[in-house]
Amino acid sequence: MPSDPPAEAALPDGRPAADVLAELRALREGDAPTRGGRTFAYVYDAGLEGLDELAAEAYAAFATVNGLDPTVFPSVARLENDLVGAVAALLGAPGAQGSFTSGGTESILLAVKTARDHARAVRGISRPQLVLPATAHAAFHKAAAYLGVEPVVVPVDPDTCRADADAMAAALTDRTALVVASAPSYAHGVVDPVAEIAAAAAGRGALCHVDACIGGWILPYLRRAGRQVQPFDLSVPGVTSLSVDLHKYAYADKGASVLLHRDAELRRHQYFAHAGWPGYPVVNPTVQGTKSAGLLAQAWAVLRHVGEDGYTALAGRVADASDRLLSGLRATEGVRVLGDPAAGLVAFTVLGPGDGGAPDLSLLLHLADEMRKLGWYLQPQLSFDGLPPNLHLTLTPATVGQVDALLEDLGTALTVARSLEPVTVDPGLAELAAALDPRALGPDEVAAVLAFAGLGEGGGLPGRMAPVLVLLDALPNGLKERLLAEFIGSVFHV
Ligand SMILES: Cc1ncc(COP(=O)(O)O)c(C=O)c1O
Prior knowledge:
The chain is an alpha/beta fold and 494 residues long. It contains 16 helices and 13 strands. It has helices at 17-28, 51-62, 74-91, 104-123, 138-147, 165-171, 194-203, 219-224, 264-268, 294-330, 361-373, 403-419, 427-435, 443-452, 466-474, 477-491; strands at residues 97-101, 129-133, 150-154, 176-182, 207-211, 241-245, 257-261, 272-274, 282-284, 335-337, 345-350, 379-381, 390-394. Helix 11 runs antiparallel to helix 15. 44% of the residues are buried. Pyridoxal-5'-phosphate binds at residues 103-105, 108, 137, 139, 182, 186, 211, 213-214, 245.
């Protein structure tokens, strides 16, 4: 009897460690650099010698420890209590309690879960709402979608890009479980009027979360370095929880955030415990079950190593880079900085020709493409609800030495961008797209639109992103979301 052909192996035969590592290193060569201060999004570069090595060693020392059970691995409790204690000392109030999580999104998911379960248990709310400014991070919408909470989005002030506290107060109802303020917002780097928003929330018996994911570990140190910083943390009456990402301005490796609650009673709603199965009794403070203690250990080590003086000096360096960049941008003809950036985040738009020219999307995106050619990554952000399209820059201490070169290249790139043919979208196409129901589109139709946008098969990106993004900007949000999901599905094509 003929035997079955051998199944194709899932993996090739094993290879020496050195070969495997060489292949990994080679893969990195196609990536944007994560060190050196030229990639103005996604990376946080303290510019401190030895810090990456310290984080890697600390991670390695705890990589195999399972954070699931601190009774078997007591070191996990010690590290987490130290770390959350440090966050509470900087940003908390007496009695504050929290958890170490894998990032801003997980902290926000858990803040929304806490508010939902608190609203149900304490106020009898069965259809909870989440009131948030239009500039709140998309992670709140993800949390609302995951957790069955209704988002109520409040427009922000179009000049300052800050949340409008009166409009937020007016949006509160008896179903409001949670109100959100950002310190600062990711998109424009401006701090919302936290005290007013928190007071309005407290007046309705709702909880109030401050998203300090990006600002929590720099704003206090900017204050310490002598800058004016408005109160934004748990010391503000009415603020009931706060998130801060240690993998941002605390310069830990990625996978490190803390969610802090005003007290133990609130934190209880964050936890999940389950005894109704035959396996081990489960209690998970956070989303993950099994989790490596490596991420906790590296964050602990980085905080300990940098210390108060170190963070104060690093914040001063970011502020210095920010001052120099802002004055250079404000002096550049046709550039408009959005709002009044508080920490290391800057967003600017580019105006089209003519006196009092309007923000020019095509010019802005040509500029981003030209800057990319010169080795700089500035993050394009599309227009939204009256807020102009812009380029976002996250500054880190390593940027300080790059500001002059950046401004010089920006001037050159702007001249080139102005000389290029504007990218436009056929108004007929935009009208057609507006009439499409994204949920009703079949895979072939979505593939055709993606190909039209220049995002064809295989997930490769075109050399210039301006044509793709100009088209995307013109599409309704539902269609944008469908196309983005489909595109990323083609990147992860297996
Ligand atoms: C203000 C703010 N909130 C939340 C997040 C989400 O954090 P993460 O990407 O770590 O999940 C970010 C990320 O940039 C942020 O800036």
